[in-house]
Amino acid sequence: MPTLDFKGKQFIYAHHLTVPFRTLKIDKEKSHTKEMPPSLDDNLIIHGDNLHALKALLPKYAGKIKCIYIDPPYNTGNENWVYNDNVNSPMMQAWLEKNSPIDIEDLERHDKWLCMMWPRLHLLRELLAEDGVIFISIDDNEMYHLHLLMNEIFGEVNFIACLPTIMNLKGNNDEFGFAGTHEYTFSWAKNRDFAQIGEFVLDDEGLESWLVDDYGFYKKGANLKSTGVNAPRTKRPNLYFPIYVNEKDELTVTEKPNTEKYEKIFPLTDGEEMSWRWSKEKITAESYNIIVERTNSGFNLYKKQRPNLGDIPSKKPKSLFYKPEYSSGNGTAILKQIFDSKVFNNPKPIQLLKDIICLSTKKDDIILDSFAGSGTTAHAVLALNKEDGGNRKFILVECEDYADNITAERVRRVINGVENAKDENLREGLGGSFTYCTLGESIDTEGMLTGDTLPTYETLANYIAYTATGRKLEVKTQSEDYCFGETKDIRFYLIYEPTLEFLESNKSALDASLAEQIAGECKATGKKAYIYASHKFMSQKELTPMGITFCQLPYSIYQIA
Prior knowledge:
four-stranded antiparallel beta sheet; 3 domains; 18 helices; Rossmann fold
């Protein structure tokens, strides 16, 4: 497969692996919760560098995100964005120092954009569920580079679509040659074998072409009489038989109906004997799914076409992504309703995000946006939950200073209600809550030894589980026996409290009594035990026959499987 080469790639190729795990610090004052205290299990708005925020989310959310939407810098040369990832290479640091910020005169601006995107896309892929889908908004400046980049990271076989997305049907006359009307929405699956893209539910106008019977919606589908060179009676003799129709348009394939009021129908085309599409058994079982149409020359039988998904008719989304509501002006208009003034340039229209979420998630899935901007993704999630009673969850990441006074403030206002909003649900308030976070200290050896940066029990347990297994475990809260999670082969234990007093006391040690208790639990389940603690009163030689591996904190946090 062709790959994309760019300046700096050799330095950032594995950069996502070297980024330290950092804690997420809850800001109670900026959070918007009800009776429950702020929690990392709630909707999240994270203020901080999205590279570090994505790494911080891995222990808890790896493989759990069903839909990712990002709207990264388009790199037009006029955005003045700065690429400042701390890559441990003197050559890379010198290059960045010399060439940032990025502008239209910078001949290496595409290299820097790719350096910025590469590690973030790797982390986003790790967060995505196996049946998850990522959507990326982009324009012509980087679309070709992005396509090659995504092929390399996500795999060419997992490409879903490049959707030209009409944002300005009138056209932008400032552009050279042609008035620009669109940008693009790229879509890749984590694994196309498991991913699904839904369909759009029809509105009232679209439902006008559908009829309703006792079994639900239907419309005329294919003729039951086969056509074509493979359909004659001679090739399908078992599907050539008479169907009997009475005055009430009731069907039977019985050779001798009980009444003589039935008329006999054979599949004929210009006198040639053809075959039916359905067998006798299927026609008998699904006679309610057949339309009888009377003509001057006899009868036509058609299949009743039912909705593809569920009970309500829907339609497959087209590869040209367009609705009048996708206009960029709609995004600005809604934001003006919320803030009474223009506070953000080019916010995404909420209908675009609602459609993306509807096509790729169910009612209790998690949606992530790591370039959150004005917070349209969270607004769309809350609006959908209000409309259909769903329990979708959002995670937003925004690095800029407006994360609180625009991104989070928008979400606060739509939760509570916007008095002058045109939409009734928005006026009443969409409901919901969120926890506001910033990035804390990294989980590192020195910080744990000195006590300067002691993570919470849950944070450390999540970090250990992810590091040990490479995936998210369902981590339990701290229990009396210190077990916090398990795989099919291993039970994990963490003897820990986030205080130096506990870690320096005998309570934090693995002793014979606790080891025997854990060994008994593991023997009953047929599993081995990995016990993480600051020290122990037994040797590994004694623990090995008990099926226990001791891992000393903070040194022995490493990959097991």
